[in-house]
Structures are given as structure tokens and as C-alpha cells.
Design a protein that fits this description.
It contains one helix and ten strands; from the N terminus they run E-E-E-H-E-E-E-E-E-E-E. Helix content is about 5%, strand content about 50%. The N and C termini lie far apart (about 30 Å).
């Protein structure tokens, strides 16, 4: 996984947010210009000190080994967010790579990418 463990964001300022999602007590925000998804433990934490936000998923290629080989997706222009809490997944639409990336809600680990051309 290209992200590794989550860490404090460079600043609490969210740049060009294109998506916002609440799952349980957590608040997720996608940033188009910085190509990443941020998470705050609570809305209060997001408003507070500069360490209220952490990077959940960062720009670039994310890969995971599977039984069939390696599965990869590229986060480029994080746009929208959706969650499937019962399956423990956060979906992020990637504008620049025309993909939807799935990450685990608990640790932000890349799971798979939905791609395909319908034309």
C-alpha cells in the first residue's frame, strides 16, 4: 500500500474539498488538488488543532497482492466518497485515472479498484 499508516496532515486546511462523508464518528474529506483523502476522528477534531486531520489515502499508485497477482489503482484527483460500513469499505472516485478505489475503513489499506470502459 502506498500510504502506510495514517499520519497528521500538513495542515488542518482542507484544499478544494470535493467530497464529504460521515461514517460513524469519523469525518472524511476528499481533496481534488492535493489528490488525497483526509479523515478526522470527529467534526470537533476537524475544527480544532492542526493535527485534527490525518491523511487516509494519498495520491499515487496503490497496490495489493491477491491470489491472482497484484491489483493496483491510482488516486489522481480525489473527487467523491461513498462508504459500505457493513463491508468496512470506503470508495473514492479518482477523476484523473477514471477509477473508483476501495480502501478499508479502519486502516485505509487499499483493497481494489473498479475500472472499465463502457464505450
Amino acid at each position: 500500500d502506498a500510504v502506510g499508516p495514517t499520519g497528521p496532515a500538513a495542515s488542518a486546511h482542507v484544499s478544494h474539498p470535493t467530497g464529504l462523508l460521515v461514517v460513524g464518528d469519523r469525518l472524511y474529506a476528499s481533496e481534488f488538488r492535493r489528490d488525497r483523502v483526509l479523515v478526522a476522528a470527529t467534526a470537533r477534531a476537524a475544527r480544532g488543532a492542526s493535527n485534527g486531520w490525518t491523511v487516509f489515502a494519498d495520491r499515487g499508485t496503490h497496490c495489493r497482492e491477491t491470489k491472482r497477482g497484484v491489483s493496483c489503482g491510482r488516486l489522481d484527483g480525489a473527487w467523491g466518497l461513498a462508504a459500505h460500513p457493513q463491508r468496512g469499505l470506503l470508495f473514492v472516485s479518482s477523476f484523473g485515472s477514471d477509477e473508483i478505489l476501495a480502501f478499508s475503513l479502519d486502516k485505509g489499506k487499499f483493497r481494489y479498484a473498479l475500472t472499465g470502459d463502457l464505450d
